[in-house]
What does this fold into?
Amino acid sequence: MSTTQRPFHMLSLEQALGAAPPLAALQERIRVSRWCLEQVQHLIPAALRPHIVAGPLQDQEWCLLVASAAASTKLRHLLPSLQQTLTQRGAQVTAIRIKVQTPGR
It folds into this structure.
């Protein structure tokens, strides 16, 4: 059995992304998702904001992750306004989905 170790090379985030296009695409989707949340933040009541996180953006469907079913219910009432604002600001989002995040997941 060989005990030879391969040399370990540290890569910067930019180098890793350049070497792996799927990672670069993932980083871009994360950036766009966060941008979407920034665009609609002002429409969400201040007390509700800490309970909402920008989730995945896939195939023009954006997901908002919420901390509870109550937050989900309140947020659902805002969906038309959120969608309209995103459309006006040029986001390529055609649907918004809300997902309740349970602790430990």
Notes: Residues 13-100 form a domain with the GMP Synthetase; Chain A, domain 3 fold (CATH 3.30.300.180). The chain has four helices and three strands. Residues 17 and 24 are 5 Å apart (CA to CA). Helices lie at 13-19, 21-40, 69-76, 79-88.
